[in-house]
Amino acid sequence: MAAAAAAAVGGPQPPQPELPAPGLALDKAATAAHLKAALSRPDNRAGAEELQALLERVLSAERPLAAAADGEEAAAAGGGGGPGAAEEEALEWCKCLLAGGGGYDEFCAAVRAYDPAALCGLVWTANFVAYRCRTCGISPCMSLCAECFHQGDHTGHDFNMFRSQAGGACDCGDSNVMRESGFCKRHQIKSSSNIPCVPKDLLMMSEFVLPRFIFCLIQYLREGYNEPAADVPSEKDLNKVLQLLEPQISFLEDLTKMGGAMRSVLTQVLTNQQNYKDLTSGLGENACAKKSHEKYLIALKSSGLTYPEDKLVYGLQEPSAGTSTLAVQGFAGATGTLGQLDSSDEEDQDGSQGLGKRKRVKLSSSTKDQSIMDVLKHKSFLEELLFWTIKYEFPQKMVTFLLNMLPDQEYKVAFTKTFVQHYAFIMKTLKKSHESDTMSNRIVHISVQLFSNEELARQVTEECQLLDIMVTVLLYMMESCLIKSELQDEENSLHVVVNCGEALLKNNTYWPLVSDFINILSHQSVAKRFLEDHGLLVTWMNFVSFFQGMNLNKRELNEHVEFESQTYYAAFAAELEACAQPMWGLLSHCKVRETQEYTRNVVRYCLEALQDWFDAINFVDEPAPNQVTFHLPLHRYYAMFLSKAVKCQELDLDSVLPDQEMLMKLMIHPLQIQASLAEIHSNMWVRNGLQIKGQAMTYVQSHFCNSMIDPDIYLLQVCASRLDPDYFISSVFERFKVVDLLTMASQHQNTVLDAEHERSMLEGALTFLVILLSLRLHLGMSDDEILRAEMVAQLCMNDRTHSSLLDLIPENPNPKSGIIPGSYSFESVLSAVADFKAPVFEPGGSMQQGMYTPKAEVWDQEFDPVMVILRTVYRRDVQSAMDRYTAFLKQSGKFPGNPWPPYKKRTPLHPSYKGLMRLLHCKTLHIVLFTLLYKILMDHQNLSEHVLCMVLYLIELGLENSAEEESDEEASVCGPERCHDSWFPGSNLVSNMRHFINYVRVRVPETAPEVKRDSPASTSSDSLSSLHSSRRPKVLQRENSGTAQVFSLVAERRKKFQEIINRSSSEANQVVRPKTSNKWSAPGSAPQLTTAILEIKESILSLLIKLHHKLSGKQNSYYPPWLDDIEILIQPEIPKYNHGDGITAVERILLKAALQSRMNKRIIEEICRKVTPPVPPKKITAAEKKTLDKEERRQKARERQQKLLAEFASRQKSFMETAMDVDSPENDIPMEIATAEPQVSEAVYDCVICGQSGPSSEDRPTGLVVLLQASSVLGQCRDNIEPKKLPITEEEQIYPWDTCAAVHDVRLSLLQRYFKDSSCLLAVSIGWEGGVYVQTCGHTLHIDCHKSYMESLRNDQVLQGFSVDKGEFTCPLCRQFANSVLPCYPGSNVESNLWQRPSNKSIQDLIKEVEELQGRPGAFPVSISSETNLSKEMESVMKDIKNTTQKKYRDYSKTPGSPDNDFLFMYSVARTNLELELIHRGGNLCSGGASTAGKRSCLNQLFHVLALHMRLYSIDSEYNPWRKLTQLVEEMNSQQGNEEQQPEVPILYHDVTSLLLIQILMMPQPLRKDHFACIVKVLFTLLYTQALVALSVKCNEEDRLAWKHTGALKKNACDAEKSYEVLLSFVISELSKGKLYHEEGAQECAMVSPIAWSPESMEKYLQDFCLPFLRITSLLQHHLFGEDLPSCQEEEEFSVLSSCLGLLPTFYQTKHPFISASCLDWPVPAFDIISQWCFEINSFTERHAEQGKALLIQESRWKLPHLLQLPENYNTIFQYYHRKTCSVCTKVPKDPAVCLVCGTFVCLKGLCCKQQSYCECVLHSQNCGAGTGIFLLINASVIIIIRGHRFCLWGSVYLDAHGEEDRDLRRGKPLYICKERYKVLEQQWISHTFDHINKRWGPHYNGL
């Protein structure tokens, strides 16, 4: 139907009615060629019409599908080839038409040839790995794709790799964003000049076809969009439409990739307004077009937008309620009508909003606001495309298409303008969106490309009012979540603030808009426009005031708050991002004098906004109690612009300051925050929950402090420097609530503070004053000095890594830029103040990172406690800094005791702030200092050393900053008589210090001791203890009456303050604190206050000197130093005073006081002369006695506790010493072989659970704590020395053919093919892969104790890192991980002495004995038949051993479950443990000595368990290999007769080490030494013969003949049996009888080694062949008989071991050169037995010569196992693997990982590669390492260890240039291999100690 309609509309019918149904490609091509020809004629109207008609038909064929998607006209789709077919068809047509009849691919290539590719412009989406080079970047947002980065030259630059969060585009080639030096090779050439012009006909078809195609796409988008019904956009529908459109958009995207020529065509199409008008107006009779146009208008309207020209829409002016985006959600009953968006006054709707009068933003013209928000008019395809892109919430494909076009300059401008035009609409869509995160990322993906370019940003600002739009849109956005502010005056407040609980703030929905704003403000030209535009500044200040006072905290006074709100995160983030960052952006452009005007503007509007704010919250002069907000962005704007004005613009500070009254208001709230910080740290807000601590910490935290606490303190400094100092000081103590404490009386009442908080609040107040007076961050320090101070403070708290330092140092302007101002100076300052400590490795210790630690001279001169206190988030960091300082002083010998924080000289003040120092010279402060000194001296309660420290610090600051030298005469005039009334005569600290104060009148409770005295005189000596000066009203006559009126408010406050202090009128209490006064005094107990007069008779100086006596604990300890050494007054800087404790501080202060005035010097001398009379014993009042007793009791308790602890520690130490000595028994007992009477003593074990010692018995066995684990480490040995490298290109691959495990596997399967199965299973060992390794910590326990221990673990609900159900536990003593207990075999050591006596029996006798003993089944001291506890335990541990490894590593037999299998498994366990111990010793036994694990070896016990079980399977005596080794068989042909059965394995194919273990484990235990020696001798003959055979096979024919000949000559010599030449010749002649040597031709060349064999090289070959056997045998002997291994040089290893094993008779030991054959001791005539053995080989090689040969050559020399070798630079691994596809699922894994043992590439956690619920890494760890896997996670650079069912993060072996890990590659700096770490990892793998060394294990549930 629709198609027919379209055809009808098409105007004149197409002239070729025979045009075939769209189908055959050939016809398409022909049609296309025909049309192209028609169009290239000069008169091409006919062609154009024909094309139009064709496109109508083709493209409208797909339109019903959209309808089908809508479910409206499903029928219209009319069956035909399914939904996708028509689209495919249409796309095919388009491609054909574009190519104009040619092939599409050739067309693409042709267009590409004309690409002037000066820009890269590659667009990427989230998670793409890109680079950023700060050295080359002009804009901070610059980024490069990996290809351009690696092609450019960035050596030595400051670059990093990063994972894109929101997507981006490559800037290579764009000189607006980056320097040309950084362009890559492809984009360096400005190639536009040499590219030929595009031929007209190439793109002619595109110009005709594309408009229709894009229009068709837009129609699709229009029809697919259904306005969501209930305000919930049905994402499903939208996504469905988008999926249908996928191919079309991809087609457009491919077009953009064809290069510049095609892009310019697309730009023309997208921006041409005529095209758009013709196609979309919806006129004409085309029903579909009409319908789609209507849908478009509805969509516009429902978005709350109008379409200006369209009268139709104005008719529909009342849209249904709820559709308007700007329905303000925060207000009751606000209905969304379009009208609400007007900014006209009557629209305030105050009634419905329930808000009271609310200031509404007035822009310069009301229409401007209106139009920004509500009007959209589309004039081109581009505009409507963007509109739909936004409507559909920025589908990724569309975004990529729009961005891919950006390299076209004309498009870039058009698109940017369009984007700005839609900005308000974007905001509305974003606010409604459910996926605001994704959408935010996509928005920023686009905007960052547009706004980072300064030229473009400037152009749009000028032409499209970009700044107006942005500010207005931000304002509107925030207006939707305003609530009434409750700060100050809850009932009448008119101020509104944002509600931090709203999703808009909580989810950071505003960040895309704010980040755009910050981005454009970074351009100077744009920022200047902003700062010049008064209207904009007013609006912006309005915006900022929405955040002023948000997230108000009210102190909970009664019960704990029920629900802790976490909104404070949102509040801090909002202030930082929406207020502070734009502020830093603006500040960065106010750096020079010429910009003064801008600062004046900002300051002016800021003050206006502040004044409005004070009015709105009804603020007069007292802040409301118990509430605090940390958010004062207006104050901070004001402060930062002031600071900039003085520092950079040379503005006069007073010209931008308001009047005194305003200053007083300004100071209140920042001061309130400082006081609240102290309250929070004093736990006064504890009922508000943890979040309030979180706020206090965030406020000072490094990312916030320079936008929060620093401006606040600076603002307070400015206020203090301009306000009356007495007023300021009194305000401080009042805010901190400690006024009442500052009395001289020993007792006081504090109406506003609990006693327990008084001390910390007083400390807080004094510390704040010290910070206020000594901080110079904004008062004159240069940027480099600030950086240095910040760095020193951070380093003093702790050693820091480079990255944490970068993170902790507050960044200056615009933290978004990622550029630290002068990051070069960062490095230079760092190297000036700190030393680098390279990472160290304690073996088995924690992995350390490279750290920076302060240099000694920094501690000596620059350590600044004030800065440390200001910057600590946690209070413990201050302590840490002090501890480190103490340690430095002790170490450098500067001061032995506990030092006080040092006093540091400050940077000089900037002249503008000189007034600040008046604080130090005001009477109020002096009275406070005097009172505090007095109280400390009198030991009043609630004072601490910290208080004293701060008091002295303030005095010292005052002396350092004293004003003019006062004349001594003037001061002395004012005699002592006046002082009773007014405390001090003047305001200069220097003169006030010596001023004596005689009497003080105080108000005290009647109960106070002072009251009971008769006359003031008698009380002078023992006046008592407590703290603030209740003083007489001060004399105000010194104030100039002229200024009194102006300062009326000040005078009022000051009077009020005095009243409070004097408590002269009870009314004062009520006036100031109406709400709280009744709350604090306990009911009924408030005592009456009464006045008492105290006699003091002290001055500050005399107090200081007495304090010196008190601190030093000696009378008259202070002696003025200048009396001895007058020099001291001339050069005052004396190093001895720099560091020290309180005594030093007092001396330093007295010296400075003496320096400042002669008078002080005289008075100090005088005071010191009056020898203080000894103090009479104090009369102690009951109350004091109580406190004293309490103190004493505490002290005693403390001492007792110390004593107990010390005792406990020594007990623990001795216990650990004894516990660690638990030895495996055979090492304990000295081997007294020669003792006459052997002592009968059993081995004694200590149980670490019950603590009893005793032997292990059959009914109560003891066991060793062991960890059983399957291991494939042995299987990883290779025969080449070079370790394999990790593959980093497609060519490099690792094949496991040459590993030990593979070789052994091949050998076993070869044997099983030709020989009898049961015999094969005795001829080899298994366990190279999945062998069971047993290790112990050496501690023992009773097995029944262990069982009860396991029970208790099972019932313990604590989450452990191990699984008790699997039998796992930790050793109760040393906490080492374990999973089984190995029973200790009971037996006395006497036996072992007897068994080791050498006997003189001949070898023949011994052979017989061995055979008999093996044949005796179960001849065991413990009879298996009687079920004892011991045998049960042995069985259960055997089960554990079997279950440790997987079934596939145990069963090698062809008949499943055959006993031979168990037999093989058991002796292989012994083999695995011996081989692994050998590897741990480095592969040889040259080092000798006891076992490396010393007492930690459990092989002896393990042997007993294995032997017990091996004896259960007796070998059939005729198959026993022992016979074949020691007896000649009479008839050799007996085997030949039986052809059907597979033969036994010839003895020469047996693995000799396996034979050894079988023989020994078959013997009854304990074994006798001479039997052991006998077995070794016999086996050595076999081994030697094997070596000869192998040698004979290895060499070529001539050599064989020569040897055969030379040996035959010596055959009759006396020691022929011990000469290798004779034996070799005999072997050759015997084997020549068979076909072994007959393999001629090509194969042989491969086997032949080109070596010329000399006697030396042959001897070496034979020794090397035998060495592995000798090593294992020596280890075994060491474990069974406890003999030490001798150490030796590598070249003597063979001879030393063979003599140690008793193979080498003593008289041979001295012979040189040493010959291996001399160790032979043949049990039967050599030649007979050899020929018997060779006969077996010959009979096999008759049939299988080649295999026979292969089996003879065994590789005996395996190198030690290694992990793969890693490349130096991590980037090489990352670039290859992070894009590599997985071989199983062929996708690029999300978390790729690579196995460091074998190099396999796996998907971590990938569900794609899951098999039977096991994810790929776990599966691989089982196959590759029998349960142990070591994986490198490519995207994180860390190594993860999987061990069985647990895993742990091990750490990284790649570190950056500063020795730090970069987990998850967050910093993206280049990483280099750390060889030491890799060695540690490899060591842990080889020694199987992952479980012991790494602590943080967790279960992986097979999900890795």
Verbal overview:
By secondary structure, the chain is an alpha+beta fold. It is built from 77 helices and 28 strands. The strands form eleven sheets. Strands 22-21-23-24-25-28 form a six-stranded antiparallel β-sheet. Strands 3-2-4 form a three-stranded antiparallel β-sheet. The chain has a three-stranded antiparallel β-sheet with strand order 17-16-20. The chain is flat and about 125 Å long. It starts with a helix and ends in a 5-residue tail after the last strand.
Tag the structure with descriptive keywords:
1904 residues, alpha+beta, 6-stranded antiparallel beta sheet, 3-stranded antiparallel beta sheet
Describe, in short, the structure shown.
It contains 77 helices and 28 strands.
